[in-house]
């Protein structure tokens, strides 16, 4: 599949989403 | 040897794909004659030694089978249920001396921990949760996650099971508006829990904080998806799904499992691979299990099919035997066995 179709990727997605999500 | 003990029977040789990969080693016979519903494998300490045991579930009894000799098992203990039938065994990864079961009819009504104490001080069955439970999964560190519906919303709860089978600790995860269909741990990420919903979304929680991190739509083509495996690699989330509602015929064959990739940051997703039946084989997913890189499914045709997820194709087919369709299939969590069951209570170990 074409990775570009998935948008910008972050290796640390779990930590980043945890810091953005409501507590 | 009583009829409860194992026996090896003559099974027709298969003229199928790589039949040599699967070798029948024994058969566990259920003497009660009641309908067989599930099978699993677990570790149990017997005379100070941890042994790989098999757990079988009939409608009103769950039995623990200990290994006797090579490929032989003997029934060691049975738990009986009088009011609510057994729906499924809930495998608990990395535990010893503990079996969890879900009881109910259409929906799960109770989850119980089953133990085996010889003293009268402790109960051998402990109620862990009750209500209208939609999904349950055994997690590492003796934890069990379940989602249940209350009058106004849905509750997602984690219980940690104590040595005596009671719930030691309770934690609630942030609820989702939609009904959760299945849970899955994300391999290699101890704090991540994934759920599929009946509205074709995948949700992710942080197990440590209870936060709901993201809701990701996966499209109408993934209706009523069951998640069998999830892992994160290079910032992307890979998920193996099956679709009980999938169409029986696609141009590439009958798809049974599917690998999709999701970018959790953007919630964008796409299909990576379809795991289809070989040409000439009919059927769609009824029940199945994924372990490491292997997927096994009982199909509507009564056959079991096995895929190598890395190779991308079906590697073995087990047609119905003794004129009996297969009704469930599980990979053993203790070794490299495939456990296949028929409704009449016969369990075949490959």
Q: Notable features of this structure?
A:
heterodimer, A: 23 residues, mainly alpha, 35% helix, B: eight-stranded mixed sheet, seven-stranded antiparallel sheet, 27 strands, disordered N terminus
Description of the structure:
- The complex is a heterodimer of chains A (23) and B (350).
- Chain A has 23 residues and is mostly helical.
- In chain A, 35% of the residues lie in helices and 0% in strands.
- Chain A has one helix at 13-20.
- Chain B is an all-beta fold.
- Helices cover 0% and strands 56% of the residues of chain B.
- Chain B has strands spanning 26-28, 36-46, 49-58, 61-69, 72-80, 86-90, 99-104, 108-114, 125-139, 143-149, 154-161, 167-173, 180-187, 189-197, 201-206, 212-217, 226-233, 236-242, 255-263, 268-276, 285-291, 294-299, 304-308, 313-318, 326-331, 338-342, 347-349.
- In chain B, strands 16-15-14-13-17-18-19-20 form an eight-stranded mixed sheet, with no helix packed on it. Chain B has a seven-stranded antiparallel sheet with strand order 6-7-8-9-10-11-12, with no helix packed on it.
- Chain B is globular.
- At the A-B interface, helix 1 of A face strand 14, strand 16, strand 19 and strand 20 of B.
């Amino acid at each position: 599949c074409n990775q570009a179709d998935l948008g910008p990727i972050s290796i640390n997605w779990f930590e980043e989403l945890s810091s953005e999500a409501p507590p | 040897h009583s009829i409860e003990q194992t026996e090896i029977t003559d099974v027709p040789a298969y003229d199928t794909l790589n039949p040599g990969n699967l070798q029948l080693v024994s058969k566990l016979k259920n003497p009660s004659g009641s309908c067989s519903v599930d099978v699993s494998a677990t570790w149990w300490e017997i005379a100070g030694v941890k042994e790989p045991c098999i757990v079988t579930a009939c409608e009103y009894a769950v039995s623990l089978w200990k290994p006797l000799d090579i490929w032989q098992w003997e029934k060691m203990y049975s738990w009986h249920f009088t009011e609510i039938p057994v729906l499924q065994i809930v495998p608990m990864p990395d535990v010893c001396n503990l079996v969890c079961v879900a009881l109910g009819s259409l929906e799960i009504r109770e989850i119980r921990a089953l133990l085996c104490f010889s003293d009268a001080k402790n109960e051998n069955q402990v109620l862990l949760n009750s209500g209208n439970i939609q999904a349950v999964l055994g997690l590492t560190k003796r934890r069990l996650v379940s989602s249940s519906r209350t009058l106004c919303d849905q509750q997602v709860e984690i219980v940690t099971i104590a040595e005596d089978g009671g719930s030691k600790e309770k934690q609630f995860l942030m609820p989702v508006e939609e009904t959760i269909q299945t849970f899955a741990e994300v391999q290699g990420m101890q704090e991540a829990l994934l759920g599929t919903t009946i509205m074709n979304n995948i949700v992710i929680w942080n197990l440590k904080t209870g936060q709901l991190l993201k809701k990701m739509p996966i499209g109408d083509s993934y209706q009523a998806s069951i998640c069998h495996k999830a892992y994160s690699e290079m910032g992307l989330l890979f998920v193996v799904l099956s679709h009980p509602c999938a169409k029986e015929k696609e141009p590439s064959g009958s798809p049974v499992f599917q690998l999709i990739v999701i970018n959790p940051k953007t919630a964008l997703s796409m299909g990576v691979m379809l795991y289809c039946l070989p040409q000439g084989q009919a059927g769609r997913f009824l029940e199945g299990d994924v372990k490491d890189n292997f997927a096994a499914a009982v199909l509507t045709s009564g056959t079991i099919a096995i895929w190598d997820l890395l190779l991308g194709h079906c590697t073995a087919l087990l047609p119905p035997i003794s004129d009996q369709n297969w009704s469930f299939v599980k990979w053993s969590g203790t070794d490299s066995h495939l456990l296949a069951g028929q409704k009449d209570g016969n369990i075949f170990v490959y």
